[in-house]
């Protein structure tokens, strides 16, 4: 495999495209318009420059990545020749299904189509295509260029060949894969959502400040980030969508904290808007 397409140039899409490009793959990054892609290119270029200047990237890898990255508005052009297409759009099932139906018509029959979802069903997505055996979830983690894990989630019809292929691909981009049988929230999202939601409830109840809740988790339980910091990084709107899906599918213990709902309604979405559980400049 030499060419990959990433659909969606948000935080996760940019990170996935970057990771494949520095590993030597030709990458097409697709999104709705040139303005969105221009912002993504600027962000990826800054990350490439910073990684090169700090010595994390050798000159050859840096130069190759610059050449490997292509920004394309037309989905047909971006996806038609790729062996793997990774969708990285919002956690909305209707949107994901619409994209997969289009990709199913555009891509060669042997192309594997993956969704970068933290909660949603590759079985449900695959059932809307003519290739359910080639549909899989590849759950990357933010920030993608630093985080080593990919959860590979097998749908009901996903073939062994598809799972082995994407696990091998994970190794090629210097990631480690864990195989998960499909169940709402997989492994990490279920754990993260419970911990984060409880931290939000404690903050709402006045148990401790956001800073002290996060400090307690970092220093007492050796978490690299506190749960409220992490929620701000992920995006509170994204976390709320995940919680709502888990609440709907798994029940009461995943009921979103009222404080999270209030923050999202107020437009306090975390780092991307400059305000969440913390203030950012």
Automatic annotation (TrEMBL):
Protein name in the entry: 3-hydroxybutyryl-CoA dehydrogenase
GO-annotated molecular function: 3-hydroxybutyryl-CoA dehydrogenase activity; NAD+ binding
Enzyme class: oxidoreductase
Location of the 3-hydroxyacyl-CoA dehydrogenase NAD binding domain: 3-182
Binding site for NAD(+): 8-13, 31, 91, 96, 118, 142, 272
InterPro entries xref list: 3-OHacyl-CoA_DH (IPR022694), 3-OHacyl-CoA_DH_NAD-bd (IPR006176), 3HC_DH_C (IPR006108), 6-PGluconate_DH-like_C_sf (IPR008927), 6PGD_dom2 (IPR013328), NAD(P)-bd_dom_sf (IPR036291)
PANTHER family: 3-HYDROXYACYL-COA DEHYDROGENASE FAMILY PROTEIN, 3-HYDROXYBUTYRYL-COA DEHYDROGENASE
UniProt-listed NCBIfam families: PRK09260.1 (NF006722)
Keywords: NAD, Oxidoreductase
Residues with site note (Important for catalytic activity): 139
Similarity-based family: Belongs to the 3-hydroxyacyl-CoA dehydrogenase family.
Gene3D superfamilies in the cross-refs: N-(1-d-carboxylethyl)-l-norvaline Dehydrogenase, domain 2 (1.10.1040.10), NAD(P)-binding Rossmann-like Domain (3.40.50.720)
Phylogenetic classification of the source organism: Bacteria, Bacillati, Bacillota, Bacilli, Bacillales
Pathway: Lipid metabolism; butanoate metabolism
GO biological process terms held by the UniProt record: fatty acid metabolic process
Enzyme Commission number: 1.1.1.157
Domain 3-hydroxyacyl-CoA dehydrogenase C-terminal positions: 185-280
């Amino acid at each position: 495999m030499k060419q990959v397409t990433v659909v969606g140039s948000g935080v996760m899409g940019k990170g996935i495209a970057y990771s494949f490009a520095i590993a030597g793959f030709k990458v097409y990054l697709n999104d709705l318009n040139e303005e969105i892609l221009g912002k993504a290119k600027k962000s990826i270029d800054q990350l490439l420059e910073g990684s090169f200047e700090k010595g994390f990237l050798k000159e050859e890898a840096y130069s190759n990545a610059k050449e490997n990255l292509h920004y394309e508005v037309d989905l047909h052009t971006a996806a038609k020749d790729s062996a793997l297409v990774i969708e990285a759009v919002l956690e909305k099932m209707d949107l994901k299904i619409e994209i997969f139906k289009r990709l199913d018509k555009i891509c060669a029959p042997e192309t594997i189509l993956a969704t970068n979802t933290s909660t949603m069903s590759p079985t449900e997505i695959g059932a809307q295509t003519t290739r359910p055996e080639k549909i899989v979830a590849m759950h990357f983690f933010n920030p993608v260029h630093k985080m080593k894990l990919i959860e590979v989630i097998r749908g009901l019809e996903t073939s062994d060949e598809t799972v082995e292929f994407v696990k091998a691909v994970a190794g090629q981009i210097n990631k480690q894969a864990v195989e998960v049988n499909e169940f709402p929230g997989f492994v990490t999202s279920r754990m993260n959502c419970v911990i984060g939601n409880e931290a939000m409830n404690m903050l709402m109840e006045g148990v401790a400040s956001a800073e002290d809740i996060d400090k307690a988790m970092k220093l007492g339980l050796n978490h690299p980030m506190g749960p409220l910091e992490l929620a701000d990084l992920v995006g509170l709107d994204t976390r709320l969508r995940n919680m709502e899906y888990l609440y709907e599918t798994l029940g009461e213990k995943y009921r979103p904290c009222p404080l999270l709902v209030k923050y999202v309604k107020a437009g306090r979405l975390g780092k991307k808007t400059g305000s969440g559980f913390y203030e950012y400049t």
